[in-house]
Amino acid sequence: MSNYKFIENGSVTSPLGFVAGGVIAGIKPNNTTKRDLGMIFCEKPCAAAAIFTKNRVKSDTIYVTQEHLKNGVAQAVIANSGNANACNPDGYEKAEQMCALAADALGIAADDVIVASTGVIGQALPIEPIEKSVGALKDSMTRDGGTYAAEAIMTTDTIKKEWAVQLSLGGKTVTIGGIAKGSGMIHINMGTTLSFVTTDAAVSAEMLHSALIEAADVSYNMVSVDGDTSTNDTLAIMASGLAGNDEITEKNGDYALFVEVLTAAFKAVAKKLAADGEGATKLVIGKVSGAKDESTAKVIAKSVICSSLVKAAMFGADANCGRILCAIGYSGAEVDVKKIDVSYRSAKGEILVCKDGMGLAFDEDKAKEILIESEIDIIINLGDGNGEAEAYGCDLTYDYVKINGDYRT
């Protein structure tokens, strides 16, 4: 692994040139205690790129942001929680209004603003609270304000997701930082909900877009909480270039290092997103090795981590290898069932429950002790090659149903 380090208390404002903030705007009725409007701003226009949900039903914020990023430039992000601004007749207009309000407050062009929303789908976004709060939002932005922007995009999240890493790139110290939200409606196929990344590295918009795709493919795209792909998933990045490295404009060694570190950071966030799944009590990581290729390993890891029966078994600390084998079997991947080994691992140890596709007799008490922990590895060896992959999920609990049963009301 290359030489890089995570920054303690790092956030989206850790890279040079960025400030951020968040305020209580009251977008959700009767909200007087939770920040629900956030902003990120750079002192100079940035190279920028984004990738989005694959759901055919999309929030209009995505269409506006796609239009704004056609020139590969952005200088600010404005985002709200409490309302997804999706499936509304005036959604595009409201998203453009949010950009215009942010641009007026910051003194920049509206098409240099990235916009995003998260929350209830199919309800009109009230623009008045945003109009009234955008001035205070602008005034709230500081170099320490990334944590407030992270809070402002939370919905059913129980913890803020923020991070920063530092590395040497072309002889210059470079920082990458970010915030993310996600707890429910997270499923493989971008599965990021909302995530905003900043860096002071000099990287072209084209290379930023390519780097996002590569890094997300083995991190965010390997997360599933509940099998539902959001209408609003947005993963955006802005690069200020203030670190002073030679601009990355091609897939050279500096690009490879940038992607490697970005991937490591995204994997750490992916684990946080999965562990904070709605109602979850456990992070469950599907670790597949011995596949004939990486593609096969990814398909199987995803299938296992998405299985409702596997997720329920993890909640109940039930070492049922049949559910793992079943999920492998319907994954669509070509495997030799008679070569499959399965074990469970946690801080309390590891136990083999399946050898050569056959269930084993094992110590149930030891298995329960292993599976009662808050982080569980499901280890699958296919005995068929060198392909490997990880997928990130959580257990399925009673609270998931409770949270989503009354989410809108």
Could you write a compact summary of the structure shown?
The protein is 31% helix and 26% strand. With 409 residues, it is α+β, with helices and mostly antiparallel strands.
Textual characterization of the structure:
This protein is an alpha+beta fold. 31% of the residues lie in helices and 26% in strands. The protein has helices spanning 60-68, 91-106, 128-140, 146-152, 205-217, 253-275, 294-306, 308-315, 321-329, 364-371, 398-405; strands spanning 4-6, 18-23, 37-52, 73-80, 113-117, 161-169, 172-181, 194-199, 234-239, 283-291, 341-346, 349-355, 358-359, 375-381, 387-394. The strands form 2 sheets. Strands 1, 2, 3, 4, 5, 6, 7, 8 and 9 form a 9-stranded mixed β-sheet that branches. Helix 1 crosses helix 2 (91-106), helix 2 runs parallel beside helix 3 and helix 7 crosses helix 9. The longest helix has 23 residues, at 253-275. The protein is globular. The protein starts with a strand and ends with a helix.
- Subunit arrangement of the protein: single chain
Low-confidence stretches are none
The radius of gyration over CA amounts to 22 Å
**Number of strand segments:** 15
Distance between the termini: 47 Å
